[in-house]
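Here comes just one.
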Amino acid sequence: MESLVSRHFVPCGAASLRSENDIKMKIAVAQISCSLGDSEANRSKVRDFSRRAKEASAELIVFPEMTDTGYSMPVIQKHANHWKTGFVVSLKEIANELSMAIVSGVSERDGSLIYNSQVLVDAKGNIVAKYRKTHLYAVSPVQEQTCFAPGDTFASSALGDLRFGFSICYDLRFPEMFRKLVSEQNVGAFLISSAWPFPRDEHFRVLAKARAIENQSYVIASNRVGKDDDLWFCGSSAIIDPRGVVIAAASADREELIHADLSQELVRSVRRRVQSLAHRRRDLY
């Protein structure tokens, strides 16, 4: 992998939709490769990227799917952990040490079951929310249902002025999930931890923008690069604003850190200008 790159873009005209009293929150996205079954190496990378994000004044950093184990069903079955030990404990320590919230895709062993999960650790090192992937990818050569149990609950959590909704990779193809998070949990930003592969890289980019535009919400997508088993991951991590404007973007093949400012006032402004969420025909659908 090439050395870490940090990118931050500000779209023209963004300030025109924001008030002088607007409170912003800086978030970072880590686009990384993972070492299969090597939680120590993956933990070290999380610490390094989190430190770099803190140096950029980020309050939250988002990591990809299965950051602890890598994305291989046999490896996950062998190395998945309960959260009272192992990788999640390290996430709590890093978050507390840096006074920064961390979201990461991570395995979750619960009794005899394993879940493909996402955890939110706050700046004090406390687990404040989690989500278990509800839509399992069951297309050859990946058969997630052979490893994971599906989750049955959508989740969101407030940080600062924004409420963040959780999702993992394949969930991106199910717009009903994102609409439900907006309409029932008042979400203004979606956090996506992903291990999305080539050759469907264009799907990843288009679907992420569509979820932002149709829900007038931020999309913060952290995707993998590198290779696990026979899968090459397509990177292209991005932060997209409620208008569908990409305000920070990563390459398709390098480890990178991207960051951007999020604004609850921008979410409100976009929704006031075009009230499409209020114009839905609930009597028809």
User: Anything to note?
Assistant: The longest helix spans residues 39-55. The chain has a mean pLDDT of 94.
